[in-house]
Each structure stands twice: as structure tokens, then as C-alpha cells.
Amino acid sequence: MELDLKKLKLRSINETLQNLDRKKNERDFKVINPEGSHALCAGLTEDMNINIKGHVGYYCGGMNQKAHITIEGNAGTGVGENMMSGKIHVKGNASQSAGATAHGGLLIIDGDASSRCGISMKGVDIVVKGSVGHMSGFMSQSGNLIVCGDAGEALGDSLYETNIYIKGKVKSLGADCVEKKMDNKHIKKLKKYLKEAKIKNLKAESFKRYGSARELYNFKIDNLSSY
Amino acid sequence: MCGIVGVYLKTKKFEKDLGKILSGMLNNMESRGPDSAGFAVYKTENEKNYKYSICINKLNFDDFKNEIIKKVKKPTISQFSDHVILITSDEPEKVIKVINSEFTDISLVGYGRSIEIFKQVGNPKDVVKKFKLETFSGSHGIGHTRMATESAITTDGSHPYSTGEDECLVHNGSLSNHNNLRRELKKQGNIFNSENDTEVAAGYVSNSLSNNKSLKDTLISGLKDLDGFYTFITGTRKGFAVVRDEIACKPAVIAETDDYVSIASEFQAMAHLPSVNSAKIFEPEPGIVYSWGN
User: What distances in angstroms separate CA A32 from CA A3, A142, A203, B161, B243, one per listed residue?
Assistant: First the structure.
């Protein structure tokens, strides 16, 4: 089914996708003429494939559950923000705060992502084939951030338990972020993500792993009842 | 919030359409700034004369015309709603004095050999319409839609700010050290007409350019001297530059083709531009000055 933003309003397109017609059981959609619209395909909750032909605005695929969204263009601020599950694939570049606060699912960005990629991520897996800007992984809590290019300043500042894998250069590490040893289990895990993102030319062993030194945050399991 | 837009034409192909392109961009940025709007268009350079963009506010156009004819040399005056473009061979020093001392309640929005500036409170769509931006042609242009945060919704608080000959600046963001900087710049002889933070940034640029610094070097030193959040677009007679502060909270996206380079706060402002889907699209990196022309 084709949904044209030149003919239909954004809200009506989102409503169609959020309330699938069970009688038709249509699960494949194409969205044309997005022209930078904000909040496109936000709040989807079911298994479906959506192909967006062009550039999108802010928060595309925000809060996504289960849906597979492909953006054949660039994405604005906060693509896949607060995603719970499913998959979002940006074929161009992503603006700042890609995958912000996302709990689950997979976000693949073929180009570069700007600053604060994966900020406060809570379990999502993010694969960036290009580079990421400054403050990426800021206060990120869990999940995996994989970058095939370089990382900007203050990578992983104040992070908790996210694993960050970088192939290229890191301009600087943020507070409490340190390089960590790549064990076999990390290499195995990274291989899985590279395969999922169809990256064949890079070896998992050539990445460096970064994570928390655990000196900045004071979460102790024994104190759980106090929180 | 605020929306900022700009187009710099690298070839002559779209010169006639500049106003149409810019008005579409401003209309699309209404959601980022519904309080006021303004734009600056650079037309062919006028070698003999100066152009003065004046907001006459509530003053009757004929009254203004009858008065100004007596005071400046061979003026040509065209009216665009509550703004007029006054063309005369008289030097800026004299004309600025006449405008400021012989009239009450009118304000000089900008002047130069090429620039024409219009700005007013109201919805961008209405502002663009009343100044007939669609009919403008030119080599480059800059626009702004304002969501007022830092000072009142007035014509003086609207962008672009022009504080020097053929110069203008628009801003998305806020400055925190503008009061100190304004005092410093005033000491060096610069004049400010509002309490607005952006006017200080424009004054800073003009002051530096008048000390023979290039636009690029000016903006590089501005990264150190201007404290706050900003994406700036600045225009000069022959050029156009963009800079974001180091933190880069304020968005900007650039689209470049062989014929033009355009910048906007959001891509949707540029979605109507010719062959934009095949343009090179990128975000200006924090703390890097991008410039075109001179």
C-alpha cells in the first residue's frame, strides 16, 4: 500500500499505520514524499514493513515496537527515539540524538550520525556505518553502540552499562568512560551485529571496546530497596 | 526556538526565483517561529547609489515622501507595506542622521549598495505576503522566523539584524554574555537600537569586519567571544557564512548543488527547492565556519 504525504495528512498516515486494518492484513507499506515531516511512523506497535522514500524530519519511528522501517534518505533529530523493539534502517545520515533513550530493537545508520547518538540509550543496539558526533552515548545505560567510523569528543560521558565498539579514532573519552578488553564473548556478540547490519569488510577483532569505569555512579545492588 | 533560512546562488540560473525560494522556506519554518519574521535579499550592486531599508511604522507614506524629498539628494522611493526602500546618492552618514533626527517613530532597518531588508511582527506567511517576497530576485538571501524568548515581540526585536553596510545576521539560539559585550562594543563606538542579544552578535561581526578582519576569521573569533547557544547565518554583499556553537544544540542542515547552497533549521524548509533530493545534504559541524562567496 502506498501512502503519499502530498495527498494525505501526516496524522492520517500515522493513524493508518497505528491501527492496522485486520481484515485486509496489509503489512507492507511505502511512504512517498515525506519532505522532512516530523514524527512520521511514530508510535507503531505491530509487525509491518515500511519503506520511506526520501528525507524525514524529527523523531521518525519514535516509540517504535515491532515495525521494520527503512528510510531511503536522511533522518532528522531523534530517529528511533524511545524505540522498544523492531528495526529502523536509515540509508542516509542521521541528525543528533539518534536512538535517544531507546529500550530495544535495532537502529542501523548507513551514513554518519551527528552529536549525542545513543544518548541515554536503555537497551537498544545501534550500528552506525559512518562516524558519530560529540557526546555520543552520553549517560547511556545499556545496549550496544557500534561505530564503524570515528567518534567525536567526550564519547560515552557518564555512561552506565552500555558497550561501545569503535573501529576508527576517538577524539576524546568522556568522564568515566574507558577502553576495555575485547574478550571472545564481545567479539562473538559484535560479529552478530556486523552480520545483521550486512557489514562484511570489517573484522570484529579490529574494533576497540569502551565502557564504564564504574567510578562515577554508585548503584549498589544491596541498596536496591532504597531506590 | 526560531527558524533560520538562507540561500546563496552559485550560478545565475535561479536569480529570478530567489524570492520565491526564500518565501517557501520561511513559510515552512512558521512552526519554529510564529511571532515575527524578516528577510534580507541581496540584489545587483548599485555602484552610484545607496539603498536604505526603512520601516515607517504608522507614518503615512505620502507624508514621509514629501518630507524626505526635501532632505536627501534625488531620492527614489518605493513602498512595500510599512517599509520603504529609499535610493539616493547621499552618503550613509548624512542619511542616517536625517532618518534618526528629523523623523519620529521610523527606523532604519539596514542600508548598503545591494541589501534590502524587511521585518515585522506577525505570522511568517503574512509577513512574506505583505512584503511581496515572491517577486524578489537576487544573488543571495537570508530569513528568520522568530519565537520570542529573550526580548519583546517588536519590529526592533525581529531579525535579520543589520549593523553595517550590506551586512546582516540571523540567529537561532540565545546569548548569555550579550550585556557585557554590548557595553564593550558601545565603548568602541558601535550603536545599538534594542536590548536584543542577536543585535550584539551582529554588532560584533560589523565591528570586526570594519577592523578589516575577514568574515570567516570574525566568526572563528566569535566562537570564543560569544557565549551561548547559536546557529548564525551572516550575509555580506558578496558572501554568506554559517556557524554553530561548539555544543550545537541548535539545528542546521545544508543542501548544496552546483547551482546553489541553502541552509535551514530543518530539512522541511528546503523540501521544495529545485533538485534538492539529489543535493549533497549535510549538517554543519559544531564550531566550524562554513562560508561561500567572499
Answer: 6, 34, 36, 39, 32
